[in-house]
Write the structure tokens for this entry.
Amino acid sequence: MNTTIQTTIQTTIQTTQSTRNWLKTHRILLLRRFCQLSLTGLFLLGPLFEIWWFKGTLSASLIFNTIPLTDPLLLEQVIATGTNPEVTLWLGFIIVLLFYFVIGGRSYCAWVCPVNMVTDSASWLRKKLNIKTNHSFSKNSRYWMLAMILVASFVNGSLIWEQFNPVTLLSRSLIFGLNTGFILIGMIFLFDLLVSKRGWCGHLCPMGANYRLIGQWSLTKVQALNRKNCDDCMDCFKVCPEPHVIKPALKGNNMSTSIIMNPECNNCGRCIEICPQKVFKYSSRWAINLEKSA
Amino acid sequence: MTSKHNPTIHKYQLSRRQFMTQSAASCCGVAMLGLGLSLGSQQANSASEWTLRPPGALEGKHFLAACVRCGQCVRACPYDTLKLADLGDPIPTGVPYFESRITPCEMCEDIPCVKACPSGALSPALENIDDARMGLATLIDKETCLNMQGLRCDVCYRICPLMGTAITLETHRNQRTGMHAVFEPRVHSDICTGCGKCEHACVLEKPAIKILPRSVVKGELGEHYRFGWEEKHKNGGSLIPKMQDFPDRLPSPDGVQQ
């Protein structure tokens, strides 16, 4: 009798500990999911509860009836067609540029984009099912995609990418309750699951490529501050959606910076929470000076 | 520190050949995709000429170039007239449109949809809703229109927000009875906004009057063509100074001209 009680208590302690552990290693991920979902939620407050704080979609929107926001790629496409849009669109573009200049260009991918949830779950399932098939693309494909979209807009005189853009399509489908946008999202899920590892977000998405270019000089960075503590467990490489960005910072010599300067890093912070040695932390691009003086 | 002396970096670098092959492959792949997208969108773009756009929408392709598919006009519409096109619709996804037979435009005086548009795809130059040209009402089936049979339905005429100017009733003789008039609804393209109230209200199972794109309905005179009566009116009188009077030449019996 006593032993059963003891084992129950032990398992309870174990489960609470493992839950606590899980929460600890997923805290930023949970925050990101909350951020991504609540953004769509804010857009849905209007149609569901008549609270019109956020109007529009991720392509372009109006916040609190005053602040316009424009996705930079949308404006670039409009310009590529040879159209000069109204001031509102330009204003929204500048606000978004400034915002991502501060928080890091590809932070959009990790913290805002709804497709990120789809591809992350594909990537998770890929690991669970141990799917090894991987048609790998060049990491540069996304820049070709970006160029192609702008050229296609110019040649066709229409925003043809917006018929297929999974990001705006999913955003629009969620906010306006359209159905068929989900077919394309399902295709991307299957593509990431079965065809190519992190194929969409990591290799092909032109929106991500655009935010990467925007984030060329952005301020918020992840830094491998305690890199001397690294015990080569490789956990960060396993969770990172863009593993190639870690190496120069983590495995550099004393002369090189410990900041992940590659703008392809999307500031998702998985490395920060997963690392048992607490090597990584959020930092800024100027942190290099602090480290040198220390 | 160059890559030559650092084996760890060197290992992960591509050879020139690999780099060239990969770049060429992704470039060609993406170009193919672009071609596919363009061809695919051509159909949707040409079909979109047949859908009705919100008031103030730029003409033809200019609208598809400026609209960022954000849906703010749809949100601004107080009558839920405007809808966003879905993937698979014959028009580009995310573009606003409305179906006049189901929910026509109510022609709000403050034009909230145009005010909501951030890109100018719905042109802010439209300040008076009566100047909107969303389409053109067309009495396309005169064989079923009740008025054309000599009945007094008049619904399209009476529902028109610009009654008596956009649609007028033109009378002519009823050939069937020989003793009544036919009140033919006639649309005036210089006034009709294409709001669709008439198509919505048409009492037939399928409407005899339909809103069609202006580009489809409207004919166009040759630029050189002039109507004599209009020129005369503009001039305030005949443009020809005076009929010239030539001497009459009649044949004489002996064949000699007089």
